[in-house]
Amino acid sequence: MEFKGAMGGIYRLTEWITRLAATNLLWVLCSSPFMICLILKLIAVNMNLANESLVMNWAMAILAPLTLFPATSAMFTVVRKWVMGDTDTGVFRTFFKGYKENYKQSLIGGIFYTLLFVIMYVDYTVYMTQFSNLQIVGVIMLILIIILLVSMFNFFSMVAHYHMSIGQIMKNAILLTLIRPFRVFSTMLGSAVIIFIGVKYPVLFLFFIGSIVAWFAFFNFYGTFLKMQDQMEKMKQKDEEQESVEDKKSDSL
């Protein structure tokens, strides 16, 4: 049954609210060990409990590859369907299918990213607090941390969209971040605005923030993918035309 007019608009709006909420709740549920540690970390910071905060840092570093990365990859599998026009796909089935199929790649990628984040964050902290004459190194580390953070949007999008080895995915995620910085950083800025709204209304993190950020990130990634694909097709067509001209010249000789 298809509704039209105002009723149709309301129906479609409630459909999208349900899709976003269901996907976000599945993401929160599957990454709940990490999320619990994150909440405890924030409480420890707010209460100035340095030792407890440090313990939570290590707990999150261990749990992120095991829970957060696979759950986020599964969420990107769902929003990929939406961006590509398949809005009627079952959220539950698509989420857990993506979770199962991409778990290994997400785990390995999560270990890689977590190790790099830990190393760079430790270096940044040391250079900024212990070596005042080498703070420029700390600034460089901060820039690298931001680039690595932004490349994660491409990483999750590629895990959901491509069938590649994990090494190729991580390499291409970072390369795409470097060669297409404006679109990727627009994703980061848009996500920062969405997260800022979530900070004002924390309940939104439970129902909407994660899935909206994932949809926005994959939307930007897919736009970049289509543009690069179009450029490659034009280059291929140009090469074929050039070869055709050269063949005609050689035939006339």
Automatic annotation (TrEMBL):
<dbReference type="InterPro" id="IPR006938">
    <property type="entry name" value="DUF624"/>
</dbReference>
<keyword id="KW-1133">Transmembrane helix</keyword>
<dbReference type="Pfam" id="PF04854">
    <property type="entry name" value="DUF624"/>
</dbReference>
<feature type="transmembrane region" description="Helical">
    <location>
        <begin position="55"/>
        <end position="79"/>
    </location>
</feature>
<keyword id="KW-0812">Transmembrane</keyword>
<feature type="transmembrane region" description="Helical">
    <location>
        <begin position="136"/>
        <end position="160"/>
    </location>
</feature>
<feature type="transmembrane region" description="Helical">
    <location>
        <begin position="21"/>
        <end position="43"/>
    </location>
</feature>
<feature type="transmembrane region" description="Helical">
    <location>
        <begin position="181"/>
        <end position="199"/>
    </location>
</feature>
<keyword id="KW-0472">Membrane</keyword>
<feature type="transmembrane region" description="Helical">
    <location>
        <begin position="106"/>
        <end position="124"/>
    </location>
</feature>
<protein>
    <submittedName>
        <fullName>Membrane protein YesL</fullName>
    </submittedName>
</protein>
<feature type="transmembrane region" description="Helical">
    <location>
        <begin position="205"/>
        <end position="226"/>
    </location>
</feature>
